[in-house]
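Late entry, evening session. Most of the bench is empty. Finally got around to the prediction I had been postponing all week. Sequence below, unchanged from the version circulated by S.P.
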Amino acid sequence: MSRCNLAKKCQVTKPGRSRVQALCAYAEPVPEGVTKKLWKLISDMKQDEVTHVVKSDACIIKFGEHLCNKMGNDKTKHEYIRTKMREAGRLLVSARKVGKLQSIKDFFIPQNFYDVIKAVKDTAGYREEDEVFAIPSLALKLGHNLKKMADIAECEAMIAGDENIVQKVKMFKKMYTTKWNELVSASALKTLNEAKWNTPELLPFTEDVKKMHIHLSKQTKLYQEKLKLEKSQKNWSNLAQVTLCDVMVFNRRRAGEVSKMKLNSYLLRNTSVLHSDVAVALSKVEQKLCQHFQRVEIRGKRDRKVPILLTPSMLDSMELLVKNRQACGVHDENLFFFAKPMTETSYYKGTDCIRKVAYQCGAEHPKTLKTTKLRKHIATLSTVLNLRDTDMDQLADFMGHDIRVHRNFYRLPEGTLQLAKISKVLMALEQGRVSEFKGKNLDEINLDPNEKVNVETDVSETDVSETEDEESEGEMPQPKKRRRSSSTSIAESSVGTKSLREMPQQEKQCQSPSTSTEENSFARKSAKERATTSNSGLSKCPKRKWTEEEVKAVENKLLDCITSGRLPGIRQCEDCIRSAPELLKNRTWKSVKFYVKNRITAFRRECEKRKKM
């Protein structure tokens, strides 16, 4: 084998027994009816029993020609074609052990159908005792391959005018449609689905992703300087791998899509300035972003057109790589952007690059930093943004899949969804409080899992006070409803025939909001200060407008509750009063709580008005 590095047309070959056997196999005369391209693909296989079977069976050769005509122009698909042909060869090797099946044509004889089933099960490692496949995906793939080879055999028989074979193949396809799912596919799918049960769905952590971006930024600057100083294959390869990983992580793109990006896709990208008519519809920030990024369109999964966005740092690296391709030993025949030096068809694999960077950047969970999990990470966190349907469509289109795939496979994991959303409905049913959340969606229901409706709670999180409901300024008046806390109801049931005039004292005895003596005394003291008892025994508080100083004091402590729509508890309200004792000395914990509640209600009403407008 010629291995001279100085020869331009010499392809450097790796030494080894399999490589020599492949060259010798390709040197043999090409059989009649087989194209040179397909024979080259078959010759590159490992020379073993399966390859010998593939070469000797006419149906497998026709199956390979079908795949080669369909996707043979893409050199990255050659390994896929060899894999599908070897799958058929492995099936035929197992089938010959049965006895009746000596070629793929024998598979299409109706009397041999159950022998075909047995051969498929043996190849996929089927266990009769528990009805489980060792390799369930292989059983499904063999079924698809047989269906496709049956279609090809039927077409060839029609062209040759052999009605006997046409009739046999049609009968096999009818039996396949009727019995295959029952005998093979059902068990294989069951094995696949059960293997996914109770498996942890780990998503990347934000801190780990941040560490990866920082590491990539440092490595990019380092290798840019090295390549400028010394134009070597090592420096070019290091910068290419770091840039490849940076583009994948930033765009949350599949590893195979970016790895196989063609050089022309980058060179022929659209660099035109934003159209003036389109710029009018964009904000100033969006207009600056259009000038900051550049966009490249590449081939995605199932030949979809998918875009990738390039930052100025990525553009600098990619321009440097293009400028030094020839000087660093990258062949002109290699059409890939992230090509390996001294090769004609090889390119750097994105999965290898991102795995290497994940362990180098110091992430606590490097195994979660994979392209698929990063894609699920952005789809899951996008739910926090409350995107509209049109925005979700744009995000799904950018990621290169349908909106249904985005919702079913990339969004929030099912287990997390049930823990976070459905559990609130079950808790409301358990506590008998469903009527309190009438007209609200799952996001608007606020329940504390540690909350208990019993004697120890002073008032529930959603109680509405007759006197405090209109306390905040600017609040629209609401119909007043007289409601009592759970502790009051329990107190009434316990006193029996006692008059209502004795109720405030009884209620005071039932309250115990905290185990701390100091907090208990504070709660009793604040309750004394705010309580005024009328002849009917109902508490009344004077309405008093909130001053700006009081509003600021509450916002300093409870602004997160107002913005998140979550009502504060007793302790939080009391801590708020303690934080500003001079400003809030005339306010009780309940008045603070209902001020927050009215602020939340006003904010929601304003949002509803905007939606209607």
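Two things to note before I forget:
Residues 448-612 form one domain.
Strands lie at 126-127, 132-133, 294-299, 305-310.
Will write this up properly tomorrow.
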